[in-house]
Structures are given as C-alpha cells and as structure tokens.
C-alpha cells in the first residue's frame, strides 16, 4: 500500500489487486510496533545457538516445523549460511536506517491522514529478567547508537517507577525514546485512504492465479478476469513464492507464523510499548486495549492455531503485567511473516526481463519499514536518486 501511495504521488497509474480485503494479510494483527530499535535481519548469528536449543522445545519462542520438503530444506540451509556476523552487520545498518526514516514517514502520515491509526511516539521499553541478557545487549546498543537510534539504560527501580505496568521481577531495561506504536490495520487503512485520494484503483477480492511470460506486456489472469500490466510489483507477503513461480523464477519467501491477542486494558495500563526480552513477548498499549504478540514458527503457509504456543504468550505476559488470572482475549489472531533466507527484505527490480519489481520478505519489520520501502521502490521505479542505499535490499539476488 505504501508503494502504491508513493508511485501514485509520482504520477504512475496504479491498480492494486488484492485477493482479500486490503490490510487483512499479515499487517492486520501484528504488534503495531514502529520501532527502529528492533529492526534487525532475521538471520542473526547471536541467536543461532539459542535457536538450535529452542527448535527442540515446542514452547520456545522459535519453532521450526520438521518437514522433508526440498524447497524448505534449501531455505533453511541458506538461512544458516546467511547467519554470519559480517553479513548480519551490513544488513542491520541498512535495515536500521530504513526503519528510522520510515518511523518519521509514518509520523507524517499520521499528521496528514484523516484516518486515526493511534500513532504514538512514547518509546519502547525492553525489560530484562536476567543480568546476563542485560549485559549481552551492550553490543546491540552500540550498533543502534551508530545508526542514530538512542537508548537509555534503566535500573530495576527506574523500570518499576517509570513503568508501573511491570509487576514481575526485573533486573532493568533499555528505553528507546524514538520508537513509536500504532494500530496496524488502521495504519494500512490510512495508506489506503491516501492511495484512493491519489487515484489508485482497487480490485479487492480478486486473486492473481497466472501471469504470462511470453515477452509482450504481462497479462494477469485473475479470478475476476484478465488484465494487462506494463510493470508489476509483487508485494504478496508469504505468498510471494507462488507469484515467483507464476513469473518463472525462484522467490524463496516462506511464512513464519506468529500470534497476537487483544486483551482488555491492563491495570495499570502500560504507558509505552514493552518488549519482554527473555519471553520474546511484544506488548502494545492501544488506547482501548492491550495487544500482546509473539512466537515465530517457520511453517510455510500453515495457518493452524497451536493453543499451546498461544498460551506461552499469555503466560509470559501474565508473569510481568497485571492482566488478571484468566484474561479473556477480544481477538486471537495469527499471521505469516514473509521471510527470505537472509532475513532481509527484497526491494527493487527482480531478476529477468525488467518489468517485475519486488517489495516483499519483510519478516518481523514489514509495518515499521513500510513507508521507507514504498519510497525506495517508487524512487527506483521512476529513476529518481534513491533515499536509501538500494544494494542491501537488491531484489535480483534471487
Ligand atoms: C505476531 C506478529 C507480530 C508482528 N509485529 C510486527 C510489528 O510490531 N511491527 C512490524 O513492523 N512488523 C510486525 N510483524 C511483521 C509484519 O506483520 C509483516 O512483516 C508485514 O505485515 C508484511 O506485510 P506484507 O504487505 O509484505 O504482507 P501481507 O500483509 O501479508 O500482505 C500480502 C497480501 O497479498 C495478498 N495476496 C497474496 N497472494 C495473492 C494473489 N495471488 N493475488 C492477490 N493478492 C494476493 C494477501 O491477501 C495479502 O493481503 C509481525 C508479524 C506477526 C505475525
């Protein structure tokens, strides 16, 4: 949607083809964080050892569904090979910059939009329960500082005093004042409203199921008839692999499932986003409720709900926040994060004939980097000097 807005601003005639309703994909129920402090490539060497341990535990924050599927195994192998420090550091620098600028761009959207999407820049507090994980964060804080993302070290007393919503045991935390949060579905709606006002055409409840590859202008076969496109932007999240297949190239984007729950407000209600570090639970204080989110399961396109894993998120939140003994969720949601093997988004021209562009593979950062992604893609497509170094996001690496 952000790409549609930025292209339309540059006078490009855009049609959005959406199988469902715009915003009902992974962006619908995500944690709503717009947090540069938490924008790292997925293939992270610091997490690799821990990930192997977690893989064996069905209640761990990361789970890999065992399967003898060659494409999945190839993805996993590439993921392991990408988890090298030098590669991670290069990716992190680019992603942090994309996210830092995107947060400012989201703030601009909030100022000019008629849709209130609950944008608030109250920062994020990362709460630690173990001294060694607090110490281990030092390296990351240096990386963030180099990227212009400030952090404040809070003692356990600071945490309890400044964020009374934390009732569990803590050894302290880091506060990132520049981070923001919002209501994710409303945020997509705000972009959609802007796209509509710029003349973008919408074909919702329309699925693309085949695309011509014969050298002429692309013809898209959809469930509501055929259409032609001079250029095509693939922004189909975890389903991008299927679109790649239609276009005749391998696009290794697989789904990593996560869950979120919307609960009644906590007492006291958090003043800002909170990250329960060891439990990997994300907390977003909406004005009228509390969203908690977590877990990452590499599952491809399996949409089933695993109650055991949902309960882990609730248990984690209960240990640290006063959400009652048996909180009743207003909504339980699951979504599939689109993940490339190197954990970096693919933004730009795809390999091949030159009329296909990608804006996909944003893993855990798709909302927080959306506005920058749209800007970068539109600049590349219209030949403008890009605001960001496009190399780390090159789409033709696949
Ligand atoms: C639990 C959880 C918490 C998260 N928290 C955050 C967070 O706080 N901040 C953040 O930045 N990110 C977060 N994420 C990640 C974020 O949600 C994703 O990165 C982002 O939503 C991906 O957006 P997308 O537009 O690429 O994909 P999607 O939002 O999934 O959109 C893809 C769209 O393509 C459509 N489509 C697919 N195939 C076709 C077809 N053949 N024809 C027509 N249409 C098609 C789908 O219907 C869908 O609407 C979270 C994810 C999860 C699961």
Order of helices and strands: HEEHEHHEHHEHEEHEEEEEHEEEEHEEEH
CATH superfamily: FAD/NAD(P)-binding domain
CATH architecture classification: 3-Layer(bba) Sandwich
Radius of gyration: 20 Å
The number of domains is 1
- Count of strand segments: 19
Beta-strand residue percentage: 15-25%
Name of the top-level CATH class: Alpha Beta
Estimated structural class: alpha+beta
Helix run count: 11
Mean pLDDT: 95
Distinct small molecules: flavin-adenine dinucleotide
Structure characterization notes:
Strand 15 (281-286) and strand 16 (289-298) form a beta hairpin. The chain has a single domain (2-397), classed as 3-Layer(bba) Sandwich (FAD/NAD(P)-binding domain). 46% of the residues are buried. By secondary structure, the protein is an alpha+beta fold. Strands 3, 4, 5, 6, 13, 14, 15, 16 and 17 form a nine-stranded mixed sheet that branches. The protein starts with a helix and ends in a 16-residue tail after the last helix. The mean pLDDT is 95. It has helices at 2-9, 45-55, 70-82, 85-112, 131-136, 138-146, 156-162, 184-197, 240-247, 307-320, 370-382; strands at residues 15-17, 33-34, 62-64, 124-128, 152-154, 172-176, 180-181, 201-203, 208-211, 218-222, 225-229, 232-234, 254-263, 273-276, 281-286, 289-298, 331-339, 346-349, 356-360. The structure holds flavin-adenine dinucleotide (FAD). Residues 17-20, 24-27, 30-33, 207-208, 235-237, 239, 258-260, 282, 293, 335, 337-338, 360, 362-368 line the site of flavin-adenine dinucleotide.
